[in-house]
C-alpha cells in the first residue's frame, strides 16, 4: 500500500511539474518611455554633441514623446535620433505613432511624414558629430499623402544589408505589404528581432515584412568613424532609437518585450515566451541565483 501511495504521489508531482512547464507566462512588457520625461534616453542630432537637444527637438507633451521643429528656422539636414540607453538582442519592440503638422523649411520631399525605428544600431556615443544616421536597421514609418499608396513599416538600411527572400539584398529600402495610413490616426508598429537570424515587421498586428541575417555593409550613411563599420559583420544586438527626419511626429507608447532570459522552468523568473537562454539571470527561492 505504501508503495502504491508513493507511486501515486510521484505521478501527481510529475503531472504538476509538467503542467507548470506548460503554463503560458504572462508577457511582461517594459515601458521604455515613461510618459513623463526622457530619462533612460540619449539624444544625438547631426552637427551637435551627444545630448545637445538642439531646438528642443525631442520633448514630452501631454504624456507623449514629441518630435517637433517649432524652434527651427531651417531644418538644414539636422537629422536626429533619440536612443534608449540599454542595448537588446532578442525582443519585440512596439511604438504607437502618428504624424502631425507640417515640415519646417529645408525638410526634403522624401522626408514628408517620414520617421523610423532603428534597431541593432550602434550606441549613440559612438556616432560622429556630423554623422547623419546610426549604422543600423531602419523600420521606416511613413504616413500617407492623401494620394496613391504609401506603405509603412518598410525596411531601410543605413550602413547595413540583409538577406531577403533567400539572397543578400543591397537595396537601400524594401517596401512592406502594409496598407496606407493617411491623416493623423494612431498606428501601432511592432518589430520582432531575433539576434542576427530573423527580423519581422508588423502593423496593427499584421505581419508585413520579413528578412534575415542583418549585417553591416553598404552606404547611405555619412560622418561615421570607420572603426564602427566592419562590412560583413552580422548584427546580433544593438541600440534602439527613434528618428527626427523633419516631419513632426508623436509617440504615445514605446514598449519592449525582452525575449532573452532565464529558461529554467525551476527558476522563479522563468518565462515561457523566452526564445534565447541566459540562465545566469535565473533566481531560485529567495532570489538566490543558481
Question: Keywords, please?
Answer:
single chain; 290 residues; mainly beta; Jelly Rolls; 2 domains; ten-stranded antiparallel beta sheet; seven-stranded antiparallel beta sheet; 1 helix
Description:
It is a single chain. Strand 14 (198-203) and strand 15 form a beta hairpin. The longest helix has 21 residues, at 2-22. The chain has 2 domains: 30-258, Sandwich (Jelly Rolls); 264-290, no CATH class. With 290 residues, it is mainly beta. The protein has one helix at residues 2-22, and strands at residues 30-31, 41-45, 58-61, 64-67, 80-88, 90-99, 114-121, 137-142, 154-156, 160-164, 167-169, 173-174, 187-194, 198-203, 206-216, 238-244, 249-258, 260-261, 276-277. The strands form 3 sheets. Strands 1, 3, 4, 6, 10, 11, 13, 14, 15 and 17 form a 10-stranded antiparallel sheet that branches. The chain is globular, with a radius of gyration of 22 Å.
Quick take:
It is built from 1 helix and 19 strands. Strand 10 and strand 11 form a beta hairpin. It is mostly beta strands and 290 residues long.
Structural class by SSE content:
mainly beta
CATH class of the largest domain: Mainly Beta
Q: Give the proportion of residues in helices.
A: under 10%
Give the C-alpha Rg.
22 Å
Distance between the termini: 37 Å
CATH homology group of the largest domain? Exo-inulinase, domain 1
CATH fold title of the largest domain: Jelly Rolls
Amino acid at each position: 500500500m505504501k508503495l502504491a501511495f508513493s507511486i501515486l504521489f510521484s505521478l501527481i508531482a510529475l503531472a504538476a511539474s509538467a503542467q507548470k512547464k506548460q503554463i503560458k507566462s504572462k508577457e511582461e512588457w517594459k515601458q521604455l518611455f515613461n510618459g513623463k520625461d526622457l530619462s533612460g534616453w540619449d539624444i544625438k542630432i547631426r552637427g551637435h554633441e551627444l545630448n545637445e537637444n538642439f531646438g528642443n527637438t525631442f520633448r514630452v507633451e501631454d504624456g507623449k514623446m514629441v518630435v517637433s521643429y517649432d524652434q527651427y528656422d531651417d531644418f538644414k539636414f539636422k537629422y536626429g535620433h533619440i536612443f534608449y540607453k540599454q542595448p537588446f538582442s532578442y525582443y519585440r519592440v512596439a511604438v504607437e505613432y502618428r504624424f502631425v503638422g507640417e515640415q519646417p523649411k529645408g525638410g526634403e520631399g522624401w522626408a514628408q511624414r517620414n520617421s523610423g525605428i532603428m534597431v541593432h544600431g550602434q550606441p549613440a556615443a559612438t556616432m560622429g558629430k556630423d554623422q547623419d544616421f546610426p549604422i543600423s536597421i531602419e523600420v521606416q514609418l511613413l504616413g500617407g499623402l492623401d494620394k496613391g499608396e504609401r506603405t509603412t513599416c518598410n525596411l531601410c538600411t543605413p550602413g547595413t544589408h540583409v538577406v531577403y527572400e533567400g539572397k543578400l539584398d543591397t537595396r537601400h529600402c524594401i517596401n512592406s505589404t502594409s496598407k496606407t495610413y493617411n491623416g493623423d490616426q494612431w498606428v501601432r508598429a511592432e518589430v520582432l528581432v531575433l539576434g542576427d537570424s530573423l527580423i519581422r515587421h508588423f502593423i496593427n498586428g499584421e505581419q508585413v515584412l520579413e528578412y534575415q541575417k542583418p549585417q553591416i555593409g553598404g552606404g547611405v550613411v555619412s560622418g561615421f568613424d570607420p572603426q564602427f563599420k566592419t562590412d560583413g559583420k552580422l548584427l546580433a544586438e544593438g541600440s534602439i532609437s527613434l528618428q527626427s527626419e523633419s516631419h513632426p511626429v508623436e509617440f504615445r507608447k514605446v514598449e519592449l518585450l525582452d525575449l532573452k532570459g532565464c529558461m529554467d522552468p525551476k527558476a522563479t523568473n522563468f518565462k515561457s515566451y523566452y526564445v534565447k537562454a541566459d540562465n545566469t539571470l535565473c533566481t531560485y527561492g529567495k532570489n538566490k541565483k543558481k
